[in-house]
Predict the 3D structure of the following.
Amino acid sequence: MKFYFILAWRNIWRNKRRTLITTASVFFGVLLSAFMSSMQEGSYDQYIRAIVNSYSGHIQIHRKGYWNDKIINNSFLNDGNIDSLLHRFPEVTIYSPRFETFCLASSEDVTKGVMILGIEPLAEDKITNISVKLYQGEYLKKGDNGVILGSRLAQFMKIGPGDTLVLIGQGYHGSGAAGKYPVRGIIKHPSPELDRTLVCMELQHCQELFSAPDLLTSMVIMVNDNEKTLPIKMALTESLGDDLEVIDWMQMNQLLLKQIDSDRAQGVITKGILYMIIAFGILGTVIMMVAERTKEFGVILAVGMKKRKLITIIILETIFMGMTGVITGVAASIPLLYYFLYNPIPFTGQAAEMMLQMGFEPAMYFSMAPSVFYEQALTIFIFTLVIGIYPIFNIRKLQIMKALRS
Amino acid sequence: MNIIEIKGISKTYDKDTMPVQALNGIDLVFQDGEFASIVGPSGSGKTTLLNIIGGLDDPTEGNVLIDGINITSLSGHSKTAFRLKNIGFVFQSFNLIPVLTVRENIEFIMQLQGASKQGRLSRTDELIEAVGLVDKKNCRPNKLSGGQQQRVAVARALASKPKFILADEPTANLDSKSAENLLDIMEKLNKEENITFIFSTHDARVMKKARRIITIEDGKVIDDVIKDKIMPES
């Protein structure tokens, strides 16, 4: 077999210029495609990171039915069992209890429906970096009875740090809930929706306000690697029993996933067109290679080579040509993408504004996921196998006498 | 000992449209160790006869028996295997594989036969020496003269230790000196190793060396002469 490999390799270099042009087309195709894939996957990672780190976390635990009907009557008792269970998983880096509900908020002149998020300030900050988003006032301290608001909400309510916010709503099982809270700080939340509605307060005060001591609506969990989300979720589901539900970030952000899928599909179409062009380039070369060597094939078959072996050599030639382009293309794309991985392309002007409004960092991020590279190699390999059908048919129907006379 | 028996071979091209009778009822017998030449004008059917003997083409009628095996009845795969084991070919335009060296071109046939590495190496060395190309063994064909290339082709044809060698106009593209040299090598191999050579040619130099001359015209054998005696009708 080694002999056939040598023969196939030397054959592709018979016409150096043609082979170089063909492999160059594969090289640039792979480079471009890897760049595109890396950019896409990097952006998706950024979106997912932004979503996970801004609100949802990787996993949430709720009382069964809460996700579909977010009312405080669907809250659950935090009796410490969940804490001890989470400590058993080294992959869980941080978790934070939340009490989340809705009520009316009033300032001197304005009343508005708001979302109340009761949090443990330190744990929550580790998950959502909420203190970094603070642009006025100060962040909540443990036991603090103040609140922090989204910037658009503060602007709408015409209040700032030091002012008082009145909250009125319905507590656990229909009890009344009302209280006055000093505003400690204003945050600029990347999610416009949350920036318009969010009021954060210390968990214990929130539970007291809504007459729900020790009750939680959710336990937000972060894991050290996104890939671990599903196994941890499954393990938690098994351990927690039927009264609680465990939901991962994918279930919580289905719209984002659909958008990513749709964007990926567009990328596949673009790359498909690119690869079709490359494939036709390789096919053209293979047609030429077969056509100009018909007599040689006749001689080789005449002296006793089986057609099967000749076909193997020609397919090897096609694969070598494609894979030479792939290997050089991947080799060139690694340092290029490595550079962009650590130096994302920043957006400026309106594009940056738009990204910020959507809650994302204004930069184009890149990914070095293995799929960025092996998908290109696999695609070209499959294309070369498909192109190999041409010489198979050609050689199978080759008549030695006709070939020798050609 | 009869090595090739040709019985009533006819070949008609384009049978259904414009039939051309290339061979018409040829009967011939070749014996082990012959150095025979099939001669005749262009279009007489020499090459067609050689191709049918070599199993590259099928006759319209008749049979070719090689060592008693009727090759005309073999399937495509069996014929390929039979050719590889029993027949060596030398073509007019050398037809070496351009990306392989002299050594590799000779070894190639043995690779196809699945010969051991040791066996391949010793046979290749032996043949390179026999055709006088020791100093060119690592050269590719484009670095060789026409005569040298044809010598490699002869060595390649001999590599599989065939029962006989069919050479179609082997000297047609060679100058006089190279042709003489090539014929001397083939004659020597014929005499010393008893290898059967059958040529198709209209080169007088080949005819001069050949010990049997079969003349074909219009697809029929019109003369069959062994030097110093006339062959009886086959």
Residues 101 and 216 of chain A are 10 Å apart (CA to CA). Residues 65-241 of chain A form one domain. Chain A touches chain B through 21 residues (CB under 8 Å). The mean pLDDT of chain A is 90.
